[in-house]
Amino acid sequence: MTIEVGVIGTGMIGQDHVRRLTHVLSGVRVAAVTDVDLDRARSVADSAGDGVAVHETGAALIADPAVDAVVVTSWGPTHEEYVLAAIAAGKQVFCEKPLATTREACDRIVDAEVATGRRLVSVGFMRRYDAQYRAMKAVVTGGEIGAPLLMHAAHRNPSVPDHYTSDMIINDSTVHDIDVARWMFDEEVAGVTVLKPRRSSKAREGFDDPLLVLLEMTSGVLVDVEASVNAGYAYDIRGEVVCEDGTVALSEAAGAIVKRSGGFGGRVPQDWRERFVRAFDTEFQAWIDALAAGGTTGPSAWDGYAATVTCETGLAALRSGAREPVVLREKPDLYK
Ligand code: NAD
Ligand code: ISE
C-alpha cells in the first residue's frame, strides 16, 4: 500500500521532507504540493518526479481526492487553518512544530479533533525519534539510576536569519526542549522562569541572546535549557539527566572519534538537518506505517497544545523576570 501525501509549504523543511518522502522512505509518495510561492512549489514538484500535482491553495490540496494525508510545513501562523481543514476533511495530518502559534488556536484544533472521536493530528517533535534521546529516556524510565532530579540541556544554533527575535528563541527553538522535557518525564511543565545572561556581542541590538529557560516539572524535576542562536561554531544539542544514583547524557558525537598527535575530536553538526536527519526519517516512516495500518502515531495535538501554552508562559516569564505558572485545560480522554 502506498500512502499518497500532499505537502503544504515547500520552503526549507518542506523541501527536505519532500526529499525524504520521495527518496528515502517506503510506502509513501508525494502526490501534490502547494506554496504561496507557486514557482517554488513547481520546482519542488519537478524534483519529486513525474505526476506530482501543484495546487494553487492549501484548501485545494486538502480537497484533492488523490491526497490521502497532509503534511503541513508552511509558516507557523498558517498551521491552524490547514490542520483544521484536514480534520474537517477526515484526513490524517502531520504538522511541523508549532501545532499553532497561540493557545486559542491550539484549543480549536484539540476541540475539532476530539469532536471526530479519533486521532488525526501528529506534530513534528522529531527529537522523540532521535536514537540518543530514546536511549536516554529508556534509562530514565527504566529506573536503573534512580529517580530523576534535574536535566541540563543546551540548544545552540550557529546563527539565525535577521528576522529572528528573542521571542523566537522560545517559540521556535526552546519549544523542542519543552517537548523533550514533557516526554522524558511523562509529565507537564508547571512553571517557567527565563533569565537573561550577559548578551552575546553577536546578537543585534535589542535581541536577548542567549536565554536560560528554567522549566519546573509537576513532580519538582527542574530542567535548565541554555538556548542560544548565535553560537557560531556549530549546531550543538546537549542533554544530561541527573538521577539519584547516576546520570545519563546524550553522547558527544554520533560519528567517528579521530585521535591524532596532540588531541582527539569528531564532527559537530552544522544545522538541525544534519543533527536530526535520522530522527526525521524515523519519525516519518513511523507515521507512514501507522497510517497504512489505519491509525496514526507520534506527538499528539495535546502535545502541540501543551508545548504552545508552555512557550506562551515562557514569553510571559521573559517579560516579567518572574516564575510564571503554566495553566493547561483539562486533558481530553482522547489523549489519555
Ligand atoms: P520557510 O520560510 O523556509 O518555508 C515556509 C514555506 O511556507 C515558504 O515556502 C512559504 O512561501 C510557505 N508559506 C507561507 N505561508 C503559506 C501559506 N499560507 N500557504 C502555503 N505556503 C505558505 O520555513 P521553514 O524553515 O521551512 O519552516 C516551516 C515550518 O517548519 C515552521 O513551522 C518551522 O517552525 C518548522 N520547522 C521545524 C523544524 C524542526 O526541527 N522540526 C526545523 C525547521 C522548521
Ligand atoms: C528551527 O525552526 C527548528 O525547529 C530547529 O530544530 C531548531 O533547532 C532551531 O532553533 C529552529 O530555528
Shape, principal axes of CA atoms: globular
Which structural class best describes the helix and strand composition? alpha/beta
Q: Fraction of residues in helices?
A: 25-40%
What is the strand arrangement across the widest sheet? Answer: 12-11-7-10-9-8-15
What is the percentage of strand-forming residues?
15-25%
Q: How many helical stretches?
A: 10
Describe this structure in words.
The chain is α/β, with parallel strands linked by helices and 336 residues long. It folds into 2 domains: 3-126 and 277-299, NAD(P)-binding Rossmann-like Domain (Rossmann fold), CATH 3.40.50; 128-271 and 307-335, Dihydrodipicolinate Reductase, domain 2, CATH 3.30.360. It is built from 10 helices and 15 strands. It has helices spanning 12-24, 38-47, 58-63, 79-88, 103-116, 131-142, 166-185, 272-275, 277-292, 301-320, and strands at residues 3-8, 28-34, 53-54, 69-72, 92-96, 121-124, 148-156, 189-195, 211-217, 222-228, 236-243, 246-249, 258-260, 263-265, 324-325. The strands form 3 sheets. It has a 7-stranded mixed β-sheet with strand order 12-11-7-10-9-8-15, covered by helices on one side. The longest helix is centred in the middle third of the chain and has 20 residues, at 166-185. It is globular. The two termini are 30 Å apart.
